[in-house]
Each structure stands twice: as C-alpha cells, then as structure tokens.
Write a structure and sequence with these properties.
Helices cover 20% and strands 38% of the residues. The protein is α+β, with helices and mostly antiparallel strands. The chain folds into two domains: 2-88, Elongation Factor Tu (Ef-tu), domain 3 (Beta Barrel); 93-236, Threonyl-tRNA Synthetase, Chain A, domain 2 (2-Layer Sandwich). The strands form four sheets. Strands 6-5-9-2-3-8-7 form a seven-stranded antiparallel sheet, with no helix packed on it.
Length: 238
C-alpha cells in the first residue's frame, strides 16, 4: 500500500511543491496521490505549508503518517479526485534539513569518540537538542566534540539515501544510533542515509545534499540528565 502514494521527500528532499489528486478524506484529514509534506519522525517535526484547491490556498494544520501513508489535516470537505497543489514552507524545512543532517554528524562522533547512543532528539529551526547515553562524558570534552563535528562539516561530504532489505539491516547493528527505538521497516525495506564514506545509518527523514550546507555548528548548551544521560543543544551559523 505504501507505493501507491508518492512521498517526494524520500527521494528528493528539495522538492518544495507538487500536484496531487485527493484520494480519501477522513474527518478533515486528506490523503493525496502525491505529497511533499514530511509527516514528522526521528525527532524532525512535520512540515508546515499550504494546499491549493480551486484557486484558494489553505493552511495544512498538521501532517501524520499511518504505516507509511501520509495524511494532511485540513479541516475541509472536498470532493474525491479533486486536483490540488501542495507547497511546503521551504525556509523552515531547509533549516530543519540542515539541523537534521548536523545530528547525523553529531551522533557519528558521539558513537566513535565516546560510545554514545541517542536516547532522544528534538530538531528545531534555530536550536536542536539531542540526548545521549554515555558511559563517560563531561563538560570538559565539549570543545573537542564541537571541533570534531565541524571538521566533518567542512569536508563537504555528499549525503545520499537508499534502501536495503530487512535481512541486510538486521545483520548490521551499526546502522542503528538510537538506544531504544528501532527504525521503521516498510515492506521489508529500511531507508539508509550515508554521509560520504564516513557514516551510514537508518533514517526516514530529510537531509541536505552535502555537509557544507550545514554550516558552522556550535554547542549552545549542555545538561546532565542523570548519571549517564547528557543533553546537548546545537545551533548553526546562518
Ligand atoms: Zn536523518
């Protein structure tokens, strides 16, 4: 059922708009033949934007995914098979893509240098926070951590995505960066995001094409959330 509805953000994270046909309506939520709206997940919030119907533009109040099928909360009644046009708020999405890709670099350094696994993340337009389970980590390690992240960013590594089978995925625990959450498996496949030859990890979110687009990153806060849980806040130069 997933393949019937096209999710442009999976193979083109830079797609800002698309035409679509209204396939189903459920209590004000719309299902479309095509969408550019990311429904949220993996710490990345759902997109905002508009859907145009009969020349009138309407805000999308919320977006959610039900087993890979994306629903848009419009609060409007419309006829099935209506032709519509979707457009996301690109400035917001691009900021989220830069921050999301940054967190891939951050969690790669956290794992390699400190054995850290992600226990939670909240990606933002201005500041993102990520929680790690570390056996040993303290405030004195922050400058070196920040510097290692920026070294990767400056290498201008390409970011790409593809899918592997569930069997391949289960044989590679290195693809999982979260301590308690298993990434979604859809129709026996798992989406993998690679940063050059540096890193590969399972992820269903949206990312920039190269690490240079992330820009300079800075740790903007650090909190102890229990003995082995640490929270880091990150901001990006505009
Ligand atoms: Zn990702």
């Amino acid at each position: 059922m997933f393949g019937r509805y096209r999710r442009h953000f999976l193979d083109d994270s830079y797609a800002v708009s698309c035409d679509a046909t209204l396939v189903d309506v459920d209590d004000g939520w719309w299902l479309l033949s095509d969408t550019v709206f990311y429904p949220g997940g993996g710490g990345q919030p759902a997109d905002t934007g508009t859907i145009t119907l009969d020349g009138a533009s309407h805000p999308v109040h919320d977006v959610r995914s039900d087993r890979g099928v994306v629903w848009h909360r419009m609060g409007l009644i419309a006829g099935l098979d209506s032709e519509v046009h979707c457009r996301i708020d690109w400035d917001r999405r691009y900021a989220l893509m830069r921050h999301h890709t940054l967190l891939h670099v951050v969690n790669t350094i956290a794992l390699r240098a400190h054995g850290g696994l992600v226990t939670g993340a909240l990606i933002g337009e201005g500041v993102s926070r990520v929680d790690f389970h570390f056996a040993e980590f303290n405030r004195s390690m922050l400058p070196e951590f920040e510097s290692a992240v920026n070294d990767v960013v400056e290498r201008n590594l390409s970011v790409s995505s593809g899918t592997i089978t569930e069997a391949e995925f289960l044989a590679r625990p290195d693809l999982i960066r979260t301590r308690n959450v298993i990434p979604p498996i859809e129709e026996g496949k798992v989406r993998i995001v690679e940063i050059g030859t540096l890193d590969a990890q399972a992820c269903g979110g949206t990312h920039v094409h190269s690490t240079a687009e992330i820009g300079r990153a800075r740790i903007d806060g650090f909190e102890n959330k229990g003995k082995e849980n640490k929270r880091l806040y990150w901001v990006l130069a505009s």
